[in-house]
Fold this sequence. Notes:
By secondary structure, the first copy, chain A, is of the alpha/beta class. In chain A, helix 10 (about 380-395) packs across helix 11 and helix 16 runs parallel beside helix 21.
Amino acid sequence: MRVALAQMEVVPGRPDINTQTMLRMIEEAKLSRADLIIFPEMAIPGYLLGDTWEQAAFLRDCEYHGRQVIAAAQGITIIFGNIGIDWHKTGDDGRVRKYNAFFIAQNGTLVKTDNFPYPFRIKTLHPNYREFDDTRHFVSSRKLAQEIGRPVEELLSPVSLTISGARLRIGCLLCEDGWSDDYSVKPITITAGYGDVDLFINISSSPFTLGKNNKRHRVFSKQVRETGIPLIYVNNVGVQNNGKTVYSFDGCSTVYNASGEIVACCDAFTEQLKVLDLRLGKDTAGPPIPVPDDTGIDTLYQALEYGTSRFLQSIGIQKVVIGASGGIDSALAAALFAKVLGPDNVLLVNMPSRFNSPTTKNLAAELAQNLGCRYAVASIQDVVDYTVRQLSEAAITQNGALCEPLTITPFITENIQARDRSARILAGMAAAFGGAFTCNANKSELTVGYSTLYGDQAGFFAALADLWKFQIYALGRYMNESVYGRQVIPAAIFDLVPSAELSPEQAVDEGKGDPIIYPYHDYLFRAFVESWHKVTPEEILDWYRQGILAAKIGCEEGLVERLFPNAAVFIQDLERWWKLYSGMAVAKRIQAPPVLALSRRAFGFDHREAQNGPYFTARYLQLKAMLLKEDQN
Amino acid sequence: MRVALAQMEVVPGRPDINTQTMLRMIEEAKLSRADLIIFPEMAIPGYLLGDTWEQAAFLRDCEYHGRQVIAAAQGITIIFGNIGIDWHKTGDDGRVRKYNAFFIAQNGTLVKTDNFPYPFRIKTLHPNYREFDDTRHFVSSRKLAQEIGRPVEELLSPVSLTISGARLRIGCLLCEDGWSDDYSVKPITITAGYGDVDLFINISSSPFTLGKNNKRHRVFSKQVRETGIPLIYVNNVGVQNNGKTVYSFDGCSTVYNASGEIVACCDAFTEQLKVLDLRLGKDTAGPPIPVPDDTGIDTLYQALEYGTSRFLQSIGIQKVVIGASGGIDSALAAALFAKVLGPDNVLLVNMPSRFNSPTTKNLAAELAQNLGCRYAVASIQDVVDYTVRQLSEAAITQNGALCEPLTITPFITENIQARDRSARILAGMAAAFGGAFTCNANKSELTVGYSTLYGDQAGFFAALADLWKFQIYALGRYMNESVYGRQVIPAAIFDLVPSAELSPEQAVDEGKGDPIIYPYHDYLFRAFVESWHKVTPEEILDWYRQGILAAKIGCEEGLVERLFPNAAVFIQDLERWWKLYSGMAVAKRIQAPPVLALSRRAFGFDHREAQNGPYFTARYLQLKAMLLKEDQN
């Protein structure tokens, strides 16, 4: 049997475009004499659509386009994901009933599957963590089973097909159905229990996360080994978003043989139609190939470049303006966008005030020179001075009487500088340049709101905001060495102390800079944000007390002791950043640009948060009191 | 039996504070010789917490505080909502198992309920529409039943209590359990089916929406009538948020007698301990009282003032700066914040450019005078001129050569003006004034992004952004007439044509203004955003074709025909706004401030959206082609 893995680029919210892609791939598969073509989950509508699922007109349109795909099933069997609709029932929200569905078409019509209420199969396990909202929109087979009073097992029987005269029994899985470790229902085990299953097919729309494919190989291989049934996994490529967070989809569609070994694998981040001969049994589609590793810096860079490139395409941005401070974050942004859009389409702007050193000004110019980007210098000093004067001198009256004037402190002036750069110069230049301006914030800054709202936090897209500072440096080196093959980011930028250069207290040439001590705080913040079982000051203080903090959060051994002479200093630092993280930084993130997700937890829709202010648990307060008492003894 | 309805203010994320409130109310109830006190759902942790539920330390803290409440159950029975935790099981996300739970405490311990796996009852129906994310965090009794292989009916038996020597069988409901119309599982019917049930108790944390209480009375009364069992509904007050959207909770705790009549009702938006004598049967707690109406302008204003006031308190804002243009939106904002914070704490700033008319400048001054607020004028013209010059004259180089300079068009200058006002002046002034600046956008503007990012869209809070323009006017009149009892908002502001005054094309004195025709577009946009079954151009065009558009969307009859001479003009307008609504406006909303929710669909977390661009369905395109052809005939 010849099988075509259709690792297509799915454009979310565009059934028309996706259907054209599918019809093209079906023709191509037919030319390659494929018997079966497999498309990803939600291939027609896309997966991350927000509440577009509430538009009945959009649902009808998905059905309409689905019919075109079904009609094309002549001389080939087509498996594809689409929304399955029951116009006669409602979901729990009272809206029309929707399923995340698995369709099989042959001879221009859907294959009726025995013992199932619909001419399609539906998703059993609905992810509702991170960016996922499946239960908001779709009814699962778990819920359907309960509703119709049947055990869920009955809805998970294999489907019998005849392909090229041969009978094939397949287990139909949708994405999360293959990730059942934490669920009480195990679709693969249940379906395999029917016996006589030839093949599992998992159609997915699975966003990229660094290291997720390695985990998938472990999880899927184990299930395949246990059941002895080969499995084909087809995932889409492209980018999809849910407003605050942008996800890339890496594809990496994979064929597992009955021993759980990988025998075929599509390229990452590439639209691809892979046609292969499938012999069921141990030697499914040839000899095993090594398990691809996706945890390295090359994968991280690939996801960053692909996600940025496709997102810009999707929103029609072809030119960007980047504030180039001479620091590493904006340098990495410049190198990235110059690669993605070409240097002609990138305008770097250095915006000095009196606090910017010649060192960084020269480095910004050198960076532009190295990249061949457009470059401009636009001072903010005049307008900052004017603003400070205008605000301090503004006559404030009340009930006809003059009130005392406003006082503009140095801290207020710091933020005036940052806003002047972004909201006045970059925004104006971007409009005139015919594009948008970038937000160059990294994840450490975003975690604690170390940025100015409408200032350096602004921009149309925050490509680097899911990267800790240590990853920013590593990617900068990687781009020099492996992307450009020359030092486009000047070496001195890597050696510079990170600094906002907004006051004399942040003079880089005197080695003064940010209050964030990245080699420690990167790891502390990561523990707050990315731990599956979220870490709070209570755990941190407990680990500190036990002397196991570095091991627990992954920073350098001995660093904690070097940084903090005693518990009081440690606690002061911990509380300072926790209060920012769960206080002001939340208010800032509410108005932050979309973040490109790369880690296992990105800010935005992936990390939902309320503006409720910091909280310290009773147990934390006990531990703190104990430690402070010990300090005094 | 004396029952105390504890309509407490719940502070989200603060188990410590909420527990203190509860202990105080328990003491008070004991003094009133109450036998039973009933607190709302999630009284200890709060309900809208984002992903704080993933912090094990927070969960332990909720249990710890729960124990304090349980210990206080001496001489009184306490019913309260808290998170119920099974540390030995996980949820579908692999994290510790959490239930949205109903606790009953007597004699310092939890009442063990027969035939149930936990010493508490759990929520059966999980809302997952609008702002709700229950399934993300909690396991429902539907899912638990399926897991342990029992019918859900078995988990919904009534609980037997002995209160003051009398036996009482109660049905335990949590919020959505009482709203089962759209669910296949009906908790009230199931529990009533056990027979011998004396009383339903529904503990809720139900956010305010205009008209929701009227619907609740219909839904709850009907169920009570059908079962003949009285029902006590206890809801909290306060505000809670999920980042992008702020909800007020109105309380309105209600006692329904066995005929479904209301016999007692707590005040809206007021913390209150209502103690009453409950005789079960027809005359539960006295004679029926009229059904309170909550659909009027007075309720809308009350929710607006309460929500604004409590949100400011919750984030510690005591002073605000408001850009006062002389238009109705900023005038309403000024009147509102002056009421909430006192005029001393409100600084109105008029920021004219050459395009601002003496008319609006005078009206802004008059408004400040009427309210007794602080007032300043800060011109933006100098800096706007400087910026246009600086950007046009900036030398742009590439590879050592000079490139062509940027051209600053009038449209770009419009946005430069808007950003100069907010990001330069208001943000600086707010910091110096010791507060924040407001976003005065209304819902029509936010729908189509008729505002400038980092300009008039900026601010710490958008109190008016869930109000259509017609509601803004109505609330302005209401504040003059019923809140202030005098014309604080000058009459001329109501007569002014709405305008941004950013160019000669928007000269108010010549009657020129916004491109939004509010008497039509308010209703068109409302159909896009607020319809439960979302309306798209396909439905709009179909209704237009049938001549039933005004009736469908609720605008004035005949208006559509007056505005649009033919289908081509109608379609051009429709597509213009749909493209903005689902295009650029989404990008802007991603970075918009938190919105106070008042309607049945507010922007933000309530209305999830992806930046996927506009889409027109195949059926829409057919309709359009047909209509344009008819135009030509």
